[in-house]
Structure of Cytochrome P450:
Amino acid sequence: MKVIYAIFLPFALLFSYRLYRLAVNYIAARRLGIPIILLPVSFEDAWWMLLKPLFAWVEHLPWGLGRWYAYTDIGWPTEDGTKTVSKIGETFMLVSPNRNQLVTAYPPAVERIYKDTKTFIRPDPFKDVFTFYGQNLSSQNGQDWQRHRKITGPAFSDQNMRYVWDESTQRAREMLNLGMAGPQSIAKLRSDFELLAMHVLSAVGFGQDNDTLTTTPPGHRLTLMQALGFILKHILTAIIFAGIRIPDVLLPSVLRQLKLAVSEFRLYMQEAVLHQMRQKGSGSRTSLLGAMVNANEAEKQLQSEGSASRRSYLTDDELYGNLFVFNLAGFETTAGSMTFALPYLATHPQVQEWVKEELEAVLPRTSNIDYAQTYPKLVRCLAVLYETLRIAGPIAQLVRAPVTTTMLPVPLDQHGGHTRTIAIEPNMLVGAHFHAMHLSPRWGRDSLEFKPQRFVSVAEDGSETLTIPPGDDAMYAAWSFSPIICPGKKFSQVEFVAVVAYILSRYRIEPYQEPGESKEAASARVAGVLDEKYFNISTHLRRPEAAKLSFVKR
Ligand code: HEM
């Protein structure tokens, strides 16, 4: 009997405590008078991430009893789309035994949360998600964040965008030369675009003309793409087990592989830093890696001098922390946007024709396409990126918490016509539902359609500019906004436009028709695959191998 008590008592106590916390949080949420979704566990429970797959059956319980399950994953907004918001309104509260989280797709509230970075900071433990190599730009608040930002800023100057353009065009040419003869599955396109984006990033950001991303150099056991790819695929496991020291023989094979990938990627970063130090002084432009290595050397100099003035420096850990985060943020997002854009274009031939008109008017007949002359005129190509990110953006949640009790506007009714304010306490999490905000009827009746034309306004003289349509106070935040706006915004735009312009000027993209399949059925199949998105570090398709695209030479 005693043994049974000893086993079950801790569980009973834990269960009672969680029930008590749920009740306390529920009462606090009720006072705000906004819709509530009750969750027995939340994505703040690290142990739940491991157990969650075992409970998938919960979703199929009758009377909506298992509805909570969908909200327990950090990436739930990606799959949710407009479902929750259209049912219960633009602002609601996720109530769990951990912290309450206010979720909002209401533009004035979203603006307040992300513009006021002094009040709404990146909270623990979310800010440390990508710190297993060290603190970095994405894990800091306040002055430390400013320091990291100032150091990395010069690498994103307009002057460097010419290199992004040239490198992207060259890599697109290589990708096409390698063969678009047969139909390409969307899964294959994703891996091709990942490689392309990594090449562009390592050339422009890290100053390396790196043709060895997919070969294993001496002293390594994995290629760079294998190491980074494995870490990204298993990032949640990597985060949970980052600090645990267990001998290799006792680890399950996936953790052993992960450990290898993490140490291999560290080695690649160390080699890149060494390479950069040897190259120092050669070349006129500031690469991202160059800027970071200089700041790291400044730190060492200051330490050796015992100086107290430390305004522009990066420690060793911060150098590697930033290198990892830029590697991660710089290729996954852009590769994803290109992978989504192509099937959307394939299923919307009239959009392709519209883009082709622009390409015929702007691109010269020669293969030498100059950045400064060409890029600003490719407004329709850029609009394709804006629309792709509106419908299939890579970000699921950017969680924040106020440092003090703060008022936030919420809509009074479903339609957001009238506003009141509610008080958000410091222990509460807040975050935008970017997917619902970008697909909201505020964008018009066609908000769920792929229609890049919505981002182009035409002046009386026929000239076109990229404009965020005013809609019914619609808000666009694919790269977030100032001050924590994505530093790679222009980088990703130039890369996307260069690649898409290169492909569309040479090929027409069509849904591949399986034998006996009609054009309409093939298009519907691609559209069906596009509808099934999920989140793992960025937005992915559940069945990318189930649809193929044909590249028809123009
Ligand atoms: C389509 C492509 C991209 C999208 C949609 C995107 C989106 C975003 C968003 C929404 C944030 C804000 C995150 C936050 O508030 O915590 C962000 C931050 C960031 N992005 Fe991007 N990004 C893209 C491409 C890039 C590229 C190409 C790079 C680098 C070359 C990059 C590097 C970063 C970094 C380092 C941060 C953290 C910034 C900070 O905390 O100050 N991103 N990105």
Remarks:
- Residues 137-138, 149, 201, 205, 325-326, 329-330, 333-334, 337, 389, 393-395, 398, 478-480, 484, 486-488, 491-492 surround protoporphyrin IX containing FE (CB under 6 Å).
- The two ends are 79 Å apart (CA to CA).
- The chain has a mean pLDDT of 88.
